[in-house]
Amino acid sequence: MADSKSHAFLLTGKKRPSQDDFEGDDIFLAKKSSHLSSDVPYSDDPLAALAATRHEFGEHGGVNMSIEASATFTVMEPETMGRMFSGELGPDRDFFIYSRHFNPTVLNLGRQMAALEGTEAAYCTASGMSAISSVLLQLCSNGGHVVAPRNLYGGTHALLSHFLPRTCNITTTFVEIGDIDMVKNAIIEGKTKVLYFESMSNPTLIVANIPELSRIAHKKGVVVVVDNTFAPVVLSPARLGADVVVHSISKFISGGADIIAGAVCGPANLVNSMMDLHQGTLMLLGPTMNAKVAFELSGRIPHLGLRMKEHCHRAMEFATRMKKLGLKVIYPGLEEHPQHELLKSMANKEYGFGALLCLDMEKEERANKLMHHLQNFTQFGFMAVSLGYYETLMSVSGSSTSSEMSAKEKELAGISPGLIRMSVGYIGNLEQKWSQFEKALSRMQDSIFTNKNSVSSILK
Fold it and tell me: At which residues is N6-(pyridoxal phosphate)lysine found (predicted)?
């Protein structure tokens, strides 16, 4: 089980017993902590832990840190470089070689992500998919085995279904993540290296039982990797038992739909192994984050909690009202959602039930017409993939973000042809946005039906 203590900066830490998969040469992840660090483990509130992390001042005392935009770094003495490459001197003592290895600005963002997720360490990458693929390739070697859910983001599903088997002979057994016995039976002791799942599934919003899944995986010596992109702040998988948490920072953490980035949060010895000069996936595959991107993101994380509260409040309100209209809505905050009580038991208090909802129009044609009216006539939101933007973003998952899956795979994952995934934004006031939604429904109904008895007739 992952340590629940939040650290003020990245630590190398000692290797944990029974975590042999994390083996790797130690390198320094810590940096000198000369100010504003804290040892208080705010384990119950990710935003409190974030506030307790070291604040990095600018070079001349600015309240914002400076951007270290150098690709390479100089040394004062020629002997120093050899000591750095041997691992004797490293970022813990402000010795840097090259920004593909370590960059001070990117390391600062990593400290923030580690605090947010309650892990020992974190390393930030160029994209969410690079974070996912790097972790899986570090934990699994040729002939390895992964257990994962049928309902996954399409890119991750393609990685596990096609790319890893073809290139690395790493295979995956896909399961119903809510069927604990099915998960347990899919794990092959001695061969299965990773149990991988999303905290909330993309796009069907199935909530994973993180404590129970972690328990059965650890009992069989399997590492638990959780994609928490859909639920930052709402859920803290490492505090619930997961070993590794991955993110597409491009989404809610960024919030601006203008940055592509990812993160790996987990035990320090795993992150160390991923940065190993000889066998580390982050080091050798090179999914390097630009320092300017890290600077941008470091300034957005402090207001993530405020944004998530409003995202989630709007999603809950819209889901409740859509349900009253007779629409088929999927949202974990609704009491009839199969995992509503589970989510309540796991969620961090006061941050809501997530900012995504699904509206099932059953047929793609109906879904497309509704989205057309919502964007082009009432300005409710935008037809676009991704999530976490201040505007509402909506797409038909089956023909977009899950298009990598076959028709049979989509059926098994519960993705209907007319399933609209909505990432609920917070721009404007709530009543204004709801009025726009109702007007789009009415316009759609007017264009299809002569008998306008009920908005719910749209689904007939």
Answer: 251
Rounded Cα gap, residues 13 and 30, in angstroms: 10
Q: What is the CATH number of the domain that holds 135?
A: 3.40.640.10
d(CA 321, CA 206): 21
Other beta carbons within 10 Å of 44: 13
Domain ranges, residue 170? 46-68+103-299
Half-sphere exposure of 364 (CA within 13 A, CB side): 8
* Confidence (pLDDT) at 188: 97
Predicted local distance difference test score (pLDDT) of residue 445: 81
> Is residue 111 domain-shared with residue 214, that is, in the same domain?
yes
Q: Is the model's pLDDT at 403 over the cut of 90? A: no
Place of tokens 């899986």: 136
pLDDT, residue 450, reads 38
Determine contact, residues 118/271, Cβ cutoff 8 Å: no
- Count: domains in the chain: 2
What pLDDT sits at residue 72? 92
Closest CA to 145 of 179, 175, 176, 189: 189
Q: Mean pLDDT across the stretch 60-69?
A: 89
The neighbouring-strand residues paired with 422 are 357, 394
Q: Are residues 324 and 287 in the same domain?
A: no
H-only helix segments in 140-187: 154-158, 164-168, 180-186
**What pTM value is reported for the model?**
0.87
Co-location of 360 and 256 in the same domain: no
Q: In what order do the strands lie in the sheet with 192-198?
A: 121-125, 262-266, 244-248, 223-227, 192-198, 145-149, 171-175
As a three-state string, the secondary structure of 99-144 is CCCCCHHHHHHHHHHHHHHCCCEEEEECCHHHHHHHHHHHHCCCCC
pLDDT of 42 = 52
In this structure, are 290 and 353 located in the same domain?
Answer: no
Domain boundary among 299, 317, 338: 299
Number of neighbours of residue 57 by Cβ within 10 angstroms: 15
253 in Cβ contact with 297 (< 8 Å):
yes
